[in-house]
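Trying the structure run again after the queue cleared.
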Amino acid sequence: PQCSADRLVPEWGYHAWVEFGNRLLSGLVSMSVIAAVLLGYRRRPRRTDLILWSWGLVAGVVGQIVLGGMTVLVDLHPLFVSAHFLLSAILMWNVLVLAARASTESVTPTWRYDRAALLQSRAIVALAGLVLVAGTLVTGSGPHGGDTRADRLGFDLESITRIHSGLAWLLVATVVWFGARLRRGSVDLPAQLSWLLAVIVLQGAIGYWQYATGLPAGLVQLHVVGAIGVWCAAVWMHLGLFDRRPHTRHTARPTARMGHP
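Done. Tokens:
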């Protein structure tokens, strides 16, 4: 926990306090994860699914501790920095699933739409994940990937940026197509879908802005935050399309019928 053998906290400096601040925030995250596990066991009636998902957070945090130490040992090589970031995204997915499940007494949520819509929704989440991975390759190939002394990834920056941008546009098209399909089925668009599209558009604007201005560090940092925003919005959209209300034999399950394409 100490910054060095003879100091509890680092000397004042931007980079030193970014790293030390990360350690402090990791402590708060760890306490929150412990609380999630304890509350999972205290909940009545006890839910095995909530306990398992809360322990998933524990595994993720332990993995981050190990991966974070390895990242320091390799002088912040971009591949390890990217893996550290992507594991954070997996943790956020775990958090959102746990939050959605804990918000209801229904253990087995019901999909509201047809199977084609389920596959489209999953495709949106998968595309969001691909955009996230491609974005780490762009950052790892640019001037802000890891330590300034670390090697950069061997990708041509312009080429990998075009791939990242193409995947992002494919994600936009898929979200719009999915929304249009719901509309054709006379289904009210869920608010989560509108929020997802708004976050993607904002993130895209930041991406083109940073590329046009030569990748200033501040905009790259903002784009990294936006990347997590897009990922969480995609996961939350998918989770929001399930009906999580408890059902009984005397309660009809509301479903939205849509014609197959």
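Strands lie at 110-111, 242-243. Worth checking whether this holds up in the mutant runs.
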